[in-house]
């Protein structure tokens, strides 16, 4: 944790949506925005920043592969229009007041790696009393989720841009979260890449400090060796207990929709496993949250 953790600052105030810069053509549906900006200009002047935490935190193993993907005109429009209102750059430089970010005191669940965000939007719509802080580094997905939130009138979703580990470590206070969702994290199947897997003991150490006692960590994967690893490290961690009395995997709960990545795995015949673990309430701890 940095020292900034002790001195919370307010979140970035919402900037007014800006008009198209002079000389810049408006976004044309179906046309990639990649070619509409001059060299050196930011991709989305009012949208998510490229690499918001900069090189400051970069000398570490990352659980994602930075990739440059085409952003559709609709996604670009959402990023420009809605990012100032619902977006959060994960720069690691300030502590977030979640009640201020969402405009209410409702419980907050962090989702790491929402992909294109369809499942996130469905879950937000089905449970408006829960706020979802959805984080990914994937720009088209950020635009897609902003669009889905807008089209479905969802006020309980905020979209984070950057590495969720920096968010957890530098920008959230202890017990700030009511839950964590990690659906189909990158499986990193090659042995030399296993160190990049998100669900590891050190990651759980960090998560345990940010989820209130009683809060749920919900993971799902279609990669069976990773499912076994998840079960092993979650079971071994003293701060978490399996919600299954038999100590095994859970069936997919009704409240979790099928995700895009899951669909691709099922098409290949993969077996999907869910894991739901509860943050332990120690006897000497006062109860927190709901
Ligand atoms: C395999 S995709 C799954 C997407 C979605 N949950 C689904 O099931 O369709 C995993 C996603 O996690 C994101 N991701 C991985 N590590 C991350 C991290 N540390 N912070 C934020 N996003 C991360 C990747 O960018 C990617 O979009």
From TrEMBL:
Gene3D superfamilies: Vaccinia Virus protein VP39
EC number(s) from the headed UniProt entry: 2.1.1.33
Composition bias type Basic and acidic residues, residue spans: 38-49, 253-262
Catalysed reactions, as listed in the record: guanosine(46) in tRNA + S-adenosyl-L-methionine = N(7)-methylguanosine(46) in tRNA + S-adenosyl-L-homocysteine
Location of the region described as Disordered in the Swiss-Prot/TrEMBL record: 1-56, 241-262
MF terms in GO: tRNA (guanine(46)-N7)-methyltransferase activity
Stretch forming the signal peptide: none
Residues noted as binding S-adenosyl-L-methionine in the record, renumbered to the chain: 111, 136, 163, 186
Binding site for substrate: 190, 222, 259-262
InterPro entries: SAM-dependent_MTases_sf, tRNA_(Gua-N-7)_MeTrfase_Trmb, tRNA_methyltr_TrmB_bact
Broadest EC class assigned to this enzyme: transferase
UniProtKB keywords: Methyltransferase, S-adenosyl-L-methionine, Transferase, tRNA processing
A Pfam family annotated for this UniProt entry: Methyltransf_4
SUPFAM superfamilies linked: S-adenosyl-L-methionine-dependent methyltransferases (SSF53335)
Pathway: tRNA modification; N(7)-methylguanine-tRNA biosynthesis
Record PANTHER family: 3-DEOXY-D-MANNO-OCTULOSONIC-ACID TRANSFERASE/TRNA GUANINE-N 7 - -METHYLTRANSFERASE (PTHR23417), PENTACOTRIPEPTIDE-REPEAT REGION OF PRORP DOMAIN-CONTAINING PROTEIN (PTHR23417:SF14)
Functional note: Catalyzes the formation of N(7)-methylguanine at position 46 (m7G46) in tRNA.
Annotated family: Belongs to the class I-like SAM-binding methyltransferase superfamily. TrmB family.
HAMAP family according to UniProt: tRNA_methyltr_TrmB
Protein name per Swiss-Prot or TrEMBL: tRNA (guanine-N(7)-)-methyltransferase
Annotated source species: Streptomyces gilvifuscus
Gene this protein is translated from: trmB
